Amino acid sequence: MLDDMLDYTEHVRSRPVWQPIPDSVRAHFRSEMPCAPGALADVYDEFSRFVVPYATGNVHPGFMGWVHGGGTVTGMLAEMLAAGLNANLGGRDHIPIEVERQITEWARQMFGFPAGASGLFVTGTSMANLIAVLVARTAALGRKVRRAGLKRGGAKLRAYTSAAAHGCIAQAMDLVGLGIDALRLVPVDASQRIDVAALQDAITADRAAGLTPFLVVGSAGTVDVGAIDDLQAVGALCRNEELWFHVDGAYGALAVLSPELAPRVAGIQDADSIAFDFHKWAQVPYDAGFILVRDGEQHRDTFASPAAYLRRETRGLAAGTYWPCDYGPDLSRGFRALKTWFTLKTYGTDLLGAVMARTCALARYLEERVLSDPRLELVAPAQLNIVCFRYRADDSNAINATIVADLHESGIAAPSTTIINGQLTIRAAFVNHRTQPCDVDALVESVLRFGAAHDAVHRRNSESVTVRDTGSKTKRKLPPQYIPGNLQTSVEPVIAA
Ligand SMILES: Cc1ncc(COP(=O)(O)O)c(C=O)c1O
Questions:
Q1: Phi and psi dihedrals of 439, rounded to 5?
Q2: Ligand 1 site: residues with CB under 6 angstroms?
Q3: Ligand 1, atom 14: closest residue by C-alpha
Q4: pLDDT digits over 469-491, tens only?
Q5: Which residue from 397, 155, 353, 121 is spatially nearest to 259, judged by alpha carbons?
Q6: Separation of 217 CA from ligand 1 center, angstroms?
Q7: Closest ligand 1 atom to the C-alpha of 219?
Q8: b/e per residue 258-267 (b: at least 16 CB within 10 A)
Q9: Whole-angstrom distance, CA of residue 333 vs CA of residue 290
Q10: Ligand 1 mean position to 352 CA, how many Å?
Q11: pTM score, two decimals?
Q12: What pLDDT digit, counting tens, does each position of 79-118 carry?
């Protein structure tokens, strides 16, 4: 199994990124519950034939959809070791908990948080954001809210984030019981960054109306285009207004590891809490979300609950003062920290930072290719590692959606789509360390090929032939730094090994 999986990773480029699932394969997973034992070899054979070929595809260098990390063999081996130990990291006195505390300490150092900060592995940033909203709520209303519930004071709480923020923040407001309407979506500027003056106005207006602002969520890398809010300005505003400053840095927060990118997230060190994923830009296999809280006491106050069966002893396995179950809703927890520990120690933070910078270089390369071809239109430039573009066509929304589905089914590349200013666009997010300039070329060439094919069909079918506005017709030459061979590719062999 191990040999096969190493081969799979080594040769993943020769496979389709993704392929449609035949009904017969899907039907395989509607079978009877196995009451009697089966042979491991047979089960593995089923896995090889029916699971492996139909996985998400994010290990593949052509995967550019949503924000998915590529994982590494190092992380895979660590997962195997963690499963072997089968440690439960809810609490008690064992070294796996110290490994998680080690990652918390490293995260604290990465973001320049003070001693006393706390951290916790969770599934992903959706859960990390939920924890942040809960901690901010407890900080605003006091510990009594945990017994008494929200009541009247809670009904007045208001939170703020940008209109470009991820939907899980609204969902967190819902889950916490504050309600989605208690989250103000502040307008964004042309680059999709929160309009700080509008944020200030919204807070002032709410205070005047007798409401209680308590939380601002800044974004370090928005999901659509990778925009980073002016975290210094948002942090200063939060200090003036005495509001909890949380940063959703699902993938962008770890830009602190790249000297080239770190200035972009300046101000993140002033946050009260940061949510981010090691499973995105840091390439740790799924799942490895993380919440870091500046004041560990406030974090603990939100979750710690006395229970006889969780009594802390002074000796034996039930000893230990730091129990992670005091910092989140989970009691039973897996050993996510191990694959992160292996990843950080094997590659080092400098190399991981270089991988992040390189994905941004790939995005700039795609941007240049789009700008240099009059058949394509740039919808959102590469602010970080994401580019949104379209194939120019009369029925552009429909054609671009079809192009993306064609790309997926061809197995060549897997970008995703999003809607920007009412336009459906192709969205390529470079996260995987295996992606090369040739994968960008394959994406562009396939978009053009599928687009031209749909154009031809569309024209044949349309009764009146319209003249398309193809915008700038000048073919721009790629600057030398974007010629594929000139991209910084030196990190690839190290991390893909
Ligand atoms: C900005 C942002 N926030 C939150 C999330 C949710 O993170 P997760 O999928 O790890 O729950 C994402 C996912 O891509 C994201 O990009």
A1: -75, -35
A2: 66-67, 124-126, 166, 168, 219, 221-223, 248, 250-251, 277, 289
A3: 67
A4: 344 444 445 444 444 444 433 33
A5: 353
A6: 13
A7: 1
A8: beebbebbeb
A9: 13
A10: 19
A11: 0.93
A12: 999 999 999 999 999 999 999 999 999 999 999 999 999 9
